[in-house]
Amino acid sequence: MNKLPYRITLEEKDLPRKWYNLKAVMKELPPPPLHPATLKPCKPEDLKPVFCEKLIEQEMNTTDKYIEIPEKLFEFYRMIRPSPLIRAYNLEKVLDTPAEIYYKFEGTNTSGSHKLNTAAAQVYYAKEEGLTSLTTETGAGQWGTAMAMACAYYGIDLTVYMVKVSAEQKPYRKAVIETYGGKIIPSPSDTTEVGRKILEENPGTGGSLGCAISEAIEVALKSKNCRYVLGSVLDHVLLHQSIIGEETRIACEKFGIEPDIIIGCAGGGSNFGGLIAPFIGDRIAGKNKIRFIGVEPASCPSLTRGKYAYDFGDTGKTTPLLKMYTLGSGFIPSPNHAGGLRYHGMSPVLSKLYHDGYIEACAYEQSKVFEAAVSFARCEGILPAPESSHAIKAAIDEAVKCREAGEKKTIIFGLSGTGYFDLTAYMSYNDGTMTDYIPSDEDLEKGFSSLPKVD
Ligand SMILES: *Cc1c(COP(=O)(O)O)cnc(C)c1O
Fold first, then answer.
1. Cα 271 to ligand 1 centroid, rounded to whole Å
2. Is 232 in the pocket of ligand 1 (CB under 6 A)?
């Protein structure tokens, strides 16, 4: 029997040496980011005080379909990649489905998720540019962990503004970041003007991602040889994550796998955007009919219930305006939500593709997502991250539809990370205290009312 192995890995000689730049193949581009003060399209100079130059160049690149992965960065990728594409034989059996299911598992590195792919790239370019330190924020902690690993490798100082409640609730993430030499400051803090102001107004606050972003940007602007980095949403982040899609495409070609459906969880959209990049490029060129499904939490439904509008990237309303599906920068996701995926907006590239009908989206409540996570863990062995489990849930539903219709389809989904750091959420699912929250239309209206008037 010519059965494919469980774990399909690529040999080093087959590893991708280039990223796939989706914007070079889109029929229509997403509208440009706007300067928050002038509402005119941002120029590279506007971004230079905050971001690394090379990353700004990549952010604005709409012409090169492939962008070379620099040799010294490839050396890092060799250490953590390829990630395995795994045939879910056991899940197929449990579901009794004729569908073939595969997943691309990004959780094998110590930081536990795909975020290291872009962290390494961003830190590499910072080093090349002669910068000596970087700042960023982290909510759940995955991004801070990935940045700490990359900074340790390239020898760059890192300051992470970690949302105060997360720093208190996730001591193990904090421990990993500090082990790799990252400096953690619970946000809001008294180290920045914006932090001091927030503390004065709200002494007991547990912080928020939006506030941590504002603190990290302030420090980057005021420090010598320092810039700020972001782990999702932006076009250059999707570009770096296309390594996931390129590896998947190469493996599919090599092993004769022809996907009918590709699924990914979508928070800011980077792992899903990266996974589908080369496939959707072919779809735009009329070379395949793959269905692409982005999956989000019902508690933070930017694609399925948001508006396609210009909005700020942060709660402090300081960033450039991005045209994206958004719940409004003033939308506050429910605190009971277990995983990440709680960002109010969605990558402008993915938003445009969704708007133009190339991708679909769906949303699930977290108890359904954890039910899927547990059945997956029990048969496939891997304990999935809560974020990734949204994709598992959608893949299971599609496989069940195949069983009911007697159709043999090939499904690939992105398993963006491991669940080792999310055991508190699993504990609450296991002891039955996990609750679901779906915002009402009125809740959403409150968020929409924070949208800037642009159009
Ligand atoms: C951060 C994170 C996500 C969500 O971010 P995207 O930019 O949408 O990919 C998904 N899964 C895991 C494991 C994460 O850490």
1. 6
2. yes
Is the beta carbon of 118 within 6 A of some atom in ligand 1? no
Quick: pLDDT tens for 2-49.
Answer: 578 899 989 999 999 999 999 999 999 999 999 999 999 999 999 999
Q: Which atom of ligand 1 is nearest to the CA of 233?
A: 7
The predicted structure's pLDDT at residue 345: 93
| Nearest CA-CA partner of 140 in 268, 316, 242, 306 | 268
- Pocket test of ligand 1: the residue of 110, 142, 237, 369 to mutate, having most ligand atoms within 8 Å of its CB, is 142
| Distance in Å, CA 268 to ligand 1 centroid | 7
- How much of the chain exceeds pLDDT 70, in percent? 98
User: Mutate which of 244, 341, 383 to test ligand 1's pocket (most atoms within 8 Å of Cβ)?
Assistant: 341
Give the Å distance between the CA of 342 and the centre of ligand 1.
10
171 pLDDT band, cuts 50/70/90, is confident
Three-class SS of 64-111? CCEEECCHHHHHHHHHHCCCCEEECHHHHHHHCCCCEEEEEECCCCCC
The Cα–Cα gap between 43 and 32 comes to 10
What are the tokens at 221? 């602007």
CA 302 to chain centre: 14
* Residue 191, number of CB atoms within 10 A of its CB: 14
Q: What is the distance in A from the centroid of ligand 1 to the CA of 115?
A: 7
pLDDT on residue 338: 66
Phi-psi region of 424 (alpha: psi -120 to 50; beta: other; left: phi over 0): alpha
At 110-129, the pLDDT tens digits run: 999 999 999 999 999 999 99
Of the candidates 419, 384, 383, 379, which has an alpha carbon nearest to the alpha carbon of residue 399? 379
Give CA–CA dist 332/406, Å, rounded: 42
pLDDT mean over 303-330: 92
Residue-range domains of the chain with CATH: 7-15+68-112+234-448 (3.40.50.1100)
Nearest to 191 by CA among 232, 165, 160, 148: 160
Confidence of residue 268 (pLDDT cuts 50, 70, 90): very high
